[in-house]
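Model: You mentioned two targets. I'll fold them one after the other.
Researcher: Yes, keep them separate.
Model: Target one:
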Amino acid sequence: MTVLVDSDCKTSAQSNPILRERGQREVFCGLTGIVWLHRKMQDAFFLIVGSRTCAHLMQSAAGVMIFAEPRFATAIIEERDLAGLADANEELDKTVQRLLARRPDIKLLFLVGSCPSEVIKLDLARAAQRLSKSFAPKVRILNYSGSGIETTFTQGEDACLASMVPELPEDKSGEPSLLVVGALADIVEDQFSRLFEQIGIPNVQFFPSRSADDLPPIGKNTSFLLAQPFLGETARLLETRGAQRLPAPFPLGVEGTTAWLKAAANAWGICQQKFDSVIEMPRARAEKSLERQRAALAGKSVFFFPDSQLEIPLARFLSREIGMRLTEVGTPYLHKIHLKEELELLPENTQLSEGQDVDRQLDRCRGVQPDISVCGLGLANPLEAEGLTTKWAIELVFTPIQGFEQAADLAELFARPLNRRMRLAV
């Protein structure tokens, strides 16, 4: 276990150093990202190469009924594979052949690595290349790792999108384009599409797209906005393809959404008057819708355990728009460049922590006794048993929370546990 105080890691809004911790962690694995990714990419399929535990995790996390036809499954590594009595690659090939014969609608197949497949050194990258030769061009086969050995669960989306970046076609049109990066609910994507069109930004595309045949082209004239703060590797690979990231806060709450949209408007030279006229009504609706939650949450304290990498944008929203007090904001990894604009908006002296040492963070949480603790499922029940009110961090990823229209829904996710606690106390 290592605890480091990074005295150089300060921002203009931070007078306190960031506490960097390395110790026992409590996180979901990257396989969980399939839960929202398979809903987004409607002709893609995610084949997990893992154990029965992986299969049980996905069935529980997704809540899929037994008679449903989901777009994910698990190719289970049996004891014969682990003992070397069977050729795992041969077994995988047969599984893929049966899957694609049964599901001719699949156009993009992901072979998703897990802890077990990595332990036995199963080379899924080579398997994807081998299988692609057999099924191309009808089916594109890619691979990425969803292992939880060294990652937190949202990095599953980052790994998935990163595997797709080399497949994106080259943009040869020479026209400027905007790419929104990060899986968004369809309703949120549609809302943003309308706003960009009304602002006057043409040629806007989203990544990932809903169809495998609709991959957005990128090139030197492509600018991109990150819709999620956990897409560091995807952003790096897009930049190697020539795309430029537009620095901005993330589109959570009224303030974050306004600044996010404004970053694109500035890049396209849209005048302030035009921009204000477009966002005036949705912004006013969002601000009004926040009033009820603000009345319930203002002055309440919140403690963030590191879990999803959404913690800093969420903390900014709760502090500046809802009036909550930040006792500690922990995050698994703090990307200083991508979060620069968010950090500058946090209240001065906000205690930030990067990484995880569960026991130390639990002690600090118990010490401050926050009104609400945002944490993973593994910590929620023990903290509730101690009398602390908790919010499941993973629900903030599963729920549409971006944009003006979802601002009140986002605030309500934090008000709901407090309302439940109050009702139970009566």
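Model: Target two:
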Amino acid sequence: MAKKGSGQKPLKKVLKENKKAKKKEKQKERHGHGFGFYFLIFFLLLIFLGGGGVLFSIYFCDVKNVECDGTEIYSDEEIKGFILDDEYSTNAVYVYLKNLIMPVENVPFIAKFNVTLKNLHTVSIEAVEKRFLGYIPSEKYGYVYYDDDGNVYEVSQSLLGGSVRVEGLVPKKPQIGSALNVGKSNRRTLLAIQRGLKSEDLSVSVISFTEDGTILLTYGDIMINLGTRANISDKIKRLPYVMPYIEGKRGTLHLEEWTQENTDIVFDEEK
């Protein structure tokens, strides 16, 4: 028997402490087992729901209708061909997810396609067209389209209406996204003209750069002679005051001699 002061705990006290320790270990084990059990249930539930969703989409989300909008450049059938381009494209959910993860790119004149699901059987395709400021015809490259920053936006053999035609400039090695390579001075002048016309709410169909440095604008049946680059922005600002008087007529409007000191503007009307 242990004596008092020997440093040993009474047997009864040791047994009690061991019992408490075992109880705590069991509680920890139950807690650990409980967490693992619930995690397993949650994981299996996710698999079940995910698998069920996949099976549902495969068997109940076939494409029955395709709605196309946003462009007159391509027909509805051509737009469908860009988006529904593989053997799995008969499934609406697949079409939506594919174009969400890997959108169709590099389609001439199209900035992007917005593909959405209107319902489980209907896919909606919106084609967002690129916006052009004008184009330059080229014997070598076809038509070089540029944006309002003066960068090449598209190079194509196809001609689109509705944008300004630029004559007398020769683009060199046009690359999409790069600055229009027609000479820095010509590029600056071209953009200044078009920005000025836009500011004055005037639209022309052709901008011509002639070999002698003269710049001509075609406005309906009226030829506007701006002369050289000198004072070109001020000359354009004068147009809104003049055009209402000659609207619908045929002839040439002369601004080539216009300056701040010489403000005479002559219109040679053709009968």
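Researcher: Noted. Anything on target two?
Model: Residues 65 and 122 are 5 Å apart (CA to CA).
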